[in-house]
Amino acid sequence: MAQRPRIAAILGPTNTGKTHYAIERMLGYRTGVIGLPLRLLAREVYDKIVAIRGPSVVALVTGEERIVPPRAQYWVCTVEAMPEGMGADFVGVDEIQLCADPERGHVFTDRLLRMRGTHETLFMGSDTMRGPIAALVPGVEFVRRERMSQLSYTGSKKISRLPARTAIVGFSVDNVYAIAELLKRQKGGAAVVMGALSPRTRNAQVDLYQNGEVDFLVATDAIGMGLNLDIDHVAFSSLTKFDGRRMRPLQPNELAQIAGRAGRGMSHGTFGVTGEAGPIPEDWAQAICNHQFTPLKKLNWRGAELRFGSIKALETSLDASPDHEVLTKAREADDLRALRTLAAEAEVAARASDGPSVQLLWDVCRIPDFRGISPAEHAGLLSVIFGHLHQRGSVPDDFLGRQVNRIDRTDGDIDTLSKRLAYIRTWTYVAQRKGWVADEDHWRGRTRAVEDALSDALHERLTQRFVDRRTSVLLRRLKQKEALLAEVNDQGEVTVEGHLVGRLEGFRFRQDKEATGQEAKTLRQASLQALTPHFHLRADRFYNAPDTEIDFTEQGGLMWGDQAVGKLAKGDDPLKPRVVAFVDDEAGADVASKVERRLQHFMDRKIAALFEPLVKIQSDEALTGLARGFAFRMVESMGVIPRSEVADEVKALDQDARGSLRKHGVRFGQYTIFMPLLLKPAPTRLRLVLWSLSSGLDEFPEAPPPGLVTVPNIDAVPAQHYTLAGYRKAGSRAIRIDMLERLADMLRAEDSRAGFEAKADMLSITGMTLEQFADLMEGLGYKAEKAERAKAKPVDAVVAETATPEGDVPVMDVADATPDGQLPDAAETPAPADVADPVAKLPDEGEAPVAAEPAEAQPEAPIPATPEEELEPGQAPDEALAGPEMEVFFTFTWGGNRGNNRRGAGKPRREARGGDAPRGDRKDRPNRGDKGDRPRGKGGKPGGKGKGGKPGGGAKTFEARPPRKEKPIDPDNPFAAALMGLKDKT
């Protein structure tokens, strides 16, 4: 007696081993077919059976994939692709509760009613199907399987606080991508699983999660269909979904199907909500935990007995109503909608005129809309395919080749690759249908190769966008409490476990700027933990480094090579600044102390070397009285003082005091008291930094480039900054103070009252043109009068040289023996009528004279016009046409503190005797015509008590006067011998 075939329903919650049980039962028979809800799950089951029995006996059939070996015994399929009429020993259908699905339910219901194995049939699914199965399948055996682990509800949590091994469920592509982006920044990344992914891409993403490269999975509800993953927690980011027609709330049984993925084997699982999802109602949560749901009452159904006599007959059979109370007519599916759209086309209706053509049209209409485009566009593509199949019997190779070649590109972003994958799935489906292409093996291989290439590219883009391997690796190693290996190359790049994490600048870790939020915090924690030994090694190397490797910047920074290791701060003494080291707290106090000590030693030695004259003059106990006080003034001013600021102190110094100061390198210049050694570039740069620190400036003035005699005079820059840099403002330029003193020495030899011209040496030491030199002289208080004259020929110069007195007789000495303002050989020439009487002699302090008011410009004598010859019209002599060659020259006379600076004409110069003291109100001073206010004497300085002639008189006469008592010559003066020799000659 033949044994009755077994029909069983294996019902229960998730994680009960139902699918595993079905596979074991199938492999117990010679042949078998199992239908699964997703091609992803079908691929997973296929790989599992292949691992047990080998690829030669296992077939895989889905809409886009067909692997059928010649001796296939076990068929793993999607439910839609299950072959009928095979007579297999075993038939199994997984997730049978999908009979109630609005879109695909009629397919599962058809398998429930019509698919049977010759020996055993199993339906695996939820307990909610017990009633409908009992009503529709006579003699069915029910097997209840309990969950192997417990499931509990944990409520709402922020994404940043979700535990590792969590699957976050979203119900749209945009939502999935947004969550994955957030997890990348905060947790190192996430794997992405969606039903639209190819099996190859999905498996590669799942591997990222399964092997621990990432601890989070972001997925659609596709994971609820039997995908077995190591998930500890499921978090819903939304409780609503779009079902193809409208947004609707998820039901408790649907939430349970997804939440049940948490927990694997005997490991317990949890579920909750996150993001913008509201809390799950308490009664729903309780039902999910206890697996108690409202039983299903109705199953979707569509007629299976199709009639292909005509399109109308086919539509009628598809529109048939069920004859059982448990069944309900399914809503219009995509294939039926496409049929009706194509039937409205006259050409399609004309072609589908008999049974085979109508059946072909129906097969074409069942091509899924993988692209997700509008029904009209999808119907247009189906119309083209149907036309080719009906007219030629197959899709032409050239047409199919053009479609595939357009898709065979792996460039572009995630969305572009996803669209190409959707397009190639259409042609993969076409190539899988028997008889639809001429060379099935070629086109199946071709479309499969394109899909694989696109899948790999999509996996790469997904990983690149949503996974930070660097952070995920560090997180995993930290979680495992393993020691991290850090390396620092010559460029300071820090790698931890082979991943670039930032740069080590000095003793501070500069993290990669791309990391933000929790990712940055985790990355820094891991990096500094690995860098701790490197900090100590680096500190030892720095402490033993020579001073040549360390330097200070013009803004007070301290550099080790090109890396900042500290900065200078204000100290109790301007010459003893404090040092602040740049060291990360994680490096430890020992490293910070060692770096700080090394920097302090460097600065102490640098100041001692560059400011050696100041250090010596400060510690010289031999200096006493006024000399010692002046020495302290030099130290406070860091070696440079405008003479106007210390005029009284300089007057008070006797020759012995000055000599003792000169031994330390102090030079008493006409404009500045300074130490020449401290005007070199390095001491100047240090002086500006130390002065800026002691003055509490936020931005330090920078020293001009070395080697420049003059620099531009910027109004916004205070004169003190120029002084500290070793320059003095004068006109539109500022001149270096040592060169200014050399210029002043030259100017002493000139008659600044009668006027003089610039010598070549003057222009040479300043490096200026004549126009620029005139501007400089006006800035120093001189009056520059511009004129033109016929350029002297060489023979004229020779004659002039023969008239020059022999020897280098200073003009100062000649002026005492000749009338004021005249050269010795012109003593008999009458003086101009407008020359006033000499003023009382003033003490000579080696400074430029100061006039009370700007000198008044004297009217120039008119130059008589040269009478022109009477010429014939249109004629002229050659001499009249050419004329003499002219040259521009300036005559400089002392103008006092006129303030007639070209950069501020009309504004009084706030200077006194070459310094910066204010001139004040001098309206009470006599006019230039008065006797007491006319410059005269040596070099144009006030001097001489002799009486001059009256205005308008003839030549001036002078009264005899006793010789002036000369000051003793300082034996320490380097020019003492030359002065003594000069005195002996006179």
Short summary of the structure?
By secondary structure, the protein is α/β, with parallel strands linked by helices. It is 38% helix and 16% strand.
- Low-pLDDT regions: 799-869, 897-961
> Largest sheet, if any?
8 strands, mixed
Strand order of the largest sheet: 4-3-5-2-6-7-1-8
What is the residue-mean pLDDT, rounded to a whole number? 81
Q: Specify the number of helices.
A: 32
Give the CA-based shape. elongated
Quote the beta fraction. Answer: 15-25%
How many DSSP-defined strands? 34
Radius of gyration (Å): 52 Å
- Secondary-structure-based class equals alpha/beta
Q: Can you give the helix content as a percent range?
A: 25-40%
Distance between the terminal alpha carbons, to the nearest Å? 158 Å
Features:
986 residues, elongated, six-stranded parallel sheet, eight-stranded mixed sheet
Description:
The chain has 986 residues and is α/β, with parallel strands linked by helices. It starts with 5 loop residues before the first strand and ends with a helix. The chain has 32 helices and 34 strands. Strand 20 (493-496) and strand 21 (499-505) form a beta hairpin. The strands form 9 sheets. It has an 8-stranded mixed sheet, sandwiched between helices. The chain has a 6-stranded parallel sheet with strand order 9-16-13-10-12-11, with helices on both faces. A 4-stranded antiparallel sheet has the order 19-20-21-22. The longest helix has 27 residues, at 440-466. Helix 10 crosses helix 13 (375-392) and helix 18 crosses helix 19.
